[in-house]
Amino acid sequence: MAIQDPPRQAETAKKRQAERESFFKDEALEILSQAREGWEDSVEKAFEKRPPWKSDFTTVSSMDVPHLVTADQVADLDPVQDIGVPGEFPYTRGIHPSGYRGRSWTMRQFAGFGTAADSNRRFKYLLEHGQTGLSVAFHLPTLYGYDSDHEMSKGEVGKCGVAIDTLADMEVLFADIPLGEVTTSMTINSTAPILLAMYLAVAERQGVDIRSQVSGTLQNDILKEYIAQKEYIFPPRPSMRLITDQFAFASEHVPRWNTISISGYHIREAGSTALQELAFTLRDGVEYVQYGIEAGLEVDEFAPRLSFFFNSHNDFFEEIAKFRAARKIWATVMRERFGAKSPRSWMCRFHTQTAGCSLTAQQPYNNVVRTTVQALAAVLGGTQSLHTNALDETLALPTEENARIALRTQQILAHESGVINTIDPLGGSYFVEEMTRRMVDGAFDYFRQIDELGGMVEAIEAGFPQREIMDAAFRFQRAFESGEKKMVGVNDFVLEDEEPVETLYISDDLADQQIAFLNRTKDERDAAAVERTLDALRRGASKEENTMPLILDCVREYCSVGEISDALRDVYGTYEEPAVF
Amino acid sequence: MVGRRILIAKPGLDGHDRGAKIVARALRDAGFEVIYSGLRQTPEQVAAAAVQEDVQAVGLSILSGAHNALLPEITKLLADQGADDILVFAGGIIPDQDIESLKQAGIDAVFLPGTHTQDIVAYLNERLG
Questions:
Q1: Which of A550, B14, B31, B63 could be bridged to B92 by S-S, CB 3.0 to 4.6 A?
Q2: Chain centroid to CA A469: how far?
């Protein structure tokens, strides 16, 4: 494996340490540190007269925040090796030399509900209003590998996303949307290879050249499913194999496709701190790279297609520090731990979504303000693409109007606020650099703990990240209930009588419609071909054969998500987590 | 206080267990004996567990939108098994317009986002006596 051995690593680190530079002259720092002592005295005196107006000055994650950071405290940061310039290792200030002047972030609103036809209309609406990429939300049965007529799908059809059973639904979903021109992100994990296969089959039928024209992203991050979101089907190890199959297939046949979006979003929503989100997500990334290398892939062939997905929560500077730290950590790990040589392997490219869990059902219009602050943090943190939540997202899937306001929020940031004009405007802020450093150090501490457990798969099997997150969630809940952490409109500044806002209501009748369409599709397909391709998949999955081409054969014959998942369940079995709290 | 058993269950397909687990912990801390079902339970599984574990109350957490299909099914199954003395309450993302019909179907209370766990504790103390 291409991991640097520890003595060589230590030697490199020592050499770098010896060559470190500082921004500051020693004499100036001496004077500054005296001035700092003076400031500390003044603060103490001020607090004697009037104590601080509250006891808690930590971040939303309960991370300590220094009252003031002065230059002497960050003087050991190397101007080049730690901070540098955009587009150069370690990318703390951004991965693109041109920042947002070369290209603004992609405005990619996550959408999907009801039938494929309903969602196709919403996609076109968003594209007409200036959205620049698609992002598909699938309903829960598709995520779990059940068809709409399955017992477990009762009440779920079309509720949390769009119902996709077969290629026939996928054809309707992307009708009149040219897949050679638009890039599409699909939030799909356990059943990701099936949905990727369907997407490619639709593109083929549109006459698009897959190799040169199809581009998009699969979420495909199964590790965070076990950690946080819990939409797993198979046990961890066969799940990892399905993913490395896709790495290998895509790097050969769909080179512009991002095969994985390693996600902290759900980890954060499950209640983690910002640091845990950062650390667990990047350590998941390390695990995928490790497995890819062990599967015989060349690191620089697949690593450039790995992308990330973070949450942006309320605490403005903590989030910005997290994004900056993510780039620095990833670059360091890829170069030093895996010996990746291509700068494209070093770059942490990420999508961001504002924090759903920060929104309140109470006084929901306040959510527009929260989302704006969070979106601004993502942009100042240098995100490549962004989803802004709609104000009604704690109540239901967004109405058309609320989805539009969410998109407009991004457009106002991009076109009116002026923040895109300069790159990493907070770089060099003593405070932001110090917070970035704390994030980097804290994440590497977690890396060490997980390495000691044997890796992320082993840590998950031992319940380590799950427990850390649950404890953090419980701590936050207690801080919220004691009033130590305020949520405006919920535990303070409450309105007694609130007017309800109008929400999108998805009728239960939709399931009948969807099931009828599924039955019609099944009647019209070639039953023998269905059997044949599913058998071939079962055989291939139990051997070393790459499953992707076999799944493509299945979807082209209109095998359903449920049928293909069942074929894989036959081979791999299913996973249940122990019910602990 | 002793011997009060509660089942916290997650019917439906959504994996959002943050709320369920927080409520389970808070109830445990408040002195209840808490059984947590784990994810993706069918109405049959929830009702069977409630009867088997001889609980006084069942708390159902659901954020997927399938509440209308699944929650009344659970109260019906409990009644079928002569267990309609078990108090059933729910929490999660449930539109206002659905709450009345859920209550008519035997869901005693519905807790929405922003609820304090202490309010749930107080509610159970009152209802279970």
A1: B63
A2: 16
